[in-house]
From TrEMBL:
<dbReference type="Pfam" id="PF00742">
    <property type="entry name" value="Homoserine_dh"/>
</dbReference>
<dbReference type="InterPro" id="IPR001342">
    <property type="entry name" value="HDH_cat"/>
</dbReference>
<feature type="domain" description="ACT">
    <location>
        <begin position="350"/>
        <end position="424"/>
    </location>
</feature>
<comment type="similarity">
    <text>Belongs to the homoserine dehydrogenase family.</text>
</comment>
<feature type="binding site">
    <location>
        <position position="107"/>
    </location>
    <ligand>
        <name>NADPH</name>
    </ligand>
</feature>
<dbReference type="GO" id="GO:0009088">
    <property type="term" value="P:threonine biosynthetic process"/>
</dbReference>
<dbReference type="GO" id="GO:0009086">
    <property type="term" value="P:methionine biosynthetic process"/>
</dbReference>
<dbReference type="InterPro" id="IPR036291">
    <property type="entry name" value="NAD(P)-bd_dom_sf"/>
</dbReference>
<keyword id="KW-0028">Amino-acid biosynthesis</keyword>
<protein>
    <recommendedName>
        <fullName>Homoserine dehydrogenase</fullName>
        <ecNumber>1.1.1.3</ecNumber>
    </recommendedName>
</protein>
<dbReference type="Pfam" id="PF01842">
    <property type="entry name" value="ACT"/>
</dbReference>
<keyword id="KW-0486">Methionine biosynthesis</keyword>
<keyword id="KW-0560">Oxidoreductase</keyword>
<comment type="pathway">
    <text>Amino-acid biosynthesis; L-methionine biosynthesis via de novo pathway; L-homoserine from L-aspartate: step 3/3.</text>
</comment>
<dbReference type="InterPro" id="IPR045865">
    <property type="entry name" value="ACT-like_dom_sf"/>
</dbReference>
<dbReference type="InterPro" id="IPR005106">
    <property type="entry name" value="Asp/hSer_DH_NAD-bd"/>
</dbReference>
<dbReference type="Pfam" id="PF03447">
    <property type="entry name" value="NAD_binding_3"/>
</dbReference>
Length: 428
């Protein structure tokens, strides 16, 4: 029999137990595909006594994931504990230093330390794989690093946080405000322990920064991702956007522009009939655009035990087959430092504001837009009988900086009540 590939599994939560289930259920299938058996030598978690619904009796136990990473009977460390630092980073570095390969689902670790870890992996001659870290079960890393390797990548877009997409689509379908749906999502267990990772776009921003590095050959630069969460999106915006033929998505966009690398994870209006516009509930979608291939749309489950473990196992089986690809699809030393460019590509914007319903109010707003060099495509005013009236404006293509100038000018008009809302309309 050929030599088995022996795993050390650090983390026995949702993803870790999913990996065990696949290995226990599909042993023969995996052996046939990998050309050798894939086995588990040892596991690690915090609470040894917890019943995890899987049989762990055949595996050695380590309280310390770093000790697990250093074991002689472990070839590959599967890090599925989570956290950008602490035990996840320590175990990953210990594994690399010991000459072992690492498979991780941990986007936070990679977004903050991916560059440094890729260098360590290169120096040690090992590999670091992270398919599960981006868009769960969707094999997007493989698509970029392998299938599309002959393309110059023009743009990467995606809805990569299922919880945000669930909240936005549920607000729309049930006509409920953000706060109510947020609490529903919390009760259903959809939110991270720290919900801001989801609703402020941080988790999705981590994922986008990893895709950017692969797509554009740049160092991972999460700090330059422009982040804006969904907490300010109101049911009114969702309705008005719908009337205009759009839906609101927390959309990640990365593209190399003449001014540098633009990376943003912000709410956007997308055409309701586009693949991104039609995305419902917790599903993820990644859109990849290459010069030769055109546009590729990948859609699937972005989280959960089965989908995430599926992605982990794809990486493990590649390692068992002897497939070696640098973490970001090229040598770490060849990744360049990109100049960050904030929203460098002009776009139309959706503006919503509440105006005092008095003569000349709209004219003052139009003047501010004109002064900022912004022309109006469409304008609608609602509820004339009230002392105030909501107004929705769709602009022609403009820069975000110009929108910010206009928004600042609105405050001096004396006719705007509360804070105006500005949301980019993305051509997808
Ligand atoms: N869940 C998903 O759908 C999903 C999707 C994509 C990516 N991911 C990523 O996958 C990773 C794991 O997620 P998860 O949902 O499986 O998390 P989880 O259910 O919270 O499980 C985490 C596991 O790590 C163990 N652990 C934490 N700190 C530890 C320490 N200091 N020493 C040893 N073990 C430790 C925990 O032990 P105890 O059980 O004893 O507490 C637990 O078994 C994260 O990086 C996450 O971002 C998850």
């Amino acid at each position: 029999m050929t030599t088995p590939l022996r795993l050390g599994l650090a983390g026995l939560g949702t993803v870790g137990t999913g990996v065990i289930r696949i290995i226990q259920t599909h042993a023969n299938l995996i052996t046939a595909r990998a050309g050798r058996p894939v086995t588990i030598s040892a596991v690690s978690a915090r609470d040894r006594k917890r019943n995890r619904g899987v049989d762990l009796s055949a595996y050695a136990w380590e309280d310390d994931p770093v000790a697990l990473a250093r074991r002689d009977d472990v070839d590959v460390v599967v890090e599925v504990m989570g956290g950008s630092d602490g035990p996840a980073k320590a175990a990953t570095e210990a594994a690399i230093a010991a000459g072992k390969d690492v498979v991780t689902a941990n986007k936070a670790l990679l977004a903050h330390h991916g560059q440094e870890l890729a260098r360590q992996v290169e120096a040690a001659g090992t590999s670091l794989r992270f398919e599960a870290a981006v868009a769960g079960g969707i094999p997007v890393i493989k698509a970029l690093t392998e299938g599309l390797a002959g393309n110059e990548i023009k743009r990467v877009m995606g809805v990569m946080n299922g919880t945000c997409n669930y909240i936005l689509t549920r607000m729309e379908s049930a006509g409920l405000p953000y706060e109510t749906v947020f609490e529903e999502a919390r009760a259903l267990g959809y939110l991270e322990a720290d919900p801001s990772l989801d609703v402020d776009g941080i988790d999705a921003g981590h994922k986008l920064s990893l895709l950017s590095a692969i797509a554009f050959g740049t160092e991972v630069d999460f700090d330059s991702v422009e982040l804006e969460g969904i907490g300010q999106i109101s049911i009114d915006d969702i309705r008005h956007a719908g009337n205009l033929g759009f839906r609101i998505k927390l959309l990640g966009v990365a593209q190399m522009t003449g001014r540098g690398l633009e990376q943003r994870m912000t709410p956007c209006l997308v055409p309701a009939q586009s693949p991104l516009g039609q995305l419902e509930g917790g599903t993820n979608m990644v859109v990849l655009e290459g010069d030769a291939v055109g546009q590729i749309v990948l859609r699937g489950p972005g989280a959960g035990e089965g989908p995430t473990a599926s992605a982990v196992m794809g990486d493990v089986i590649d390692i068992a087959r002897g497939v070696r690809i640098p973490p970001f699809g090229r040598p770490a030393s060849s990744l360049t430092r990109a100049i960050p460019a904030k929203a460098a590509v002009p776009a139309p914007y959706y503006l919503r504001m509440t105006l005092l319903d008095k003569p000349g109010a709209l004219a003052r707003i139009a003047t501010q837009l004109g002064d900022a060099g912004i022309s109006i495509d469409r304008m609608r005013q609602y509820g004339h009988s009230e002392p105030t009236a909501p107004v929705v404006i769709v602009t022609h293509r403009t820069m975000r900086d110009s929108i910010d100038v206009a928004l600042a000018g609105f405050r001096d008009t004396g006719v705007v009540v509360g804070e105006p809302v500005a949301i980019r309309i993305e051509a997808v």
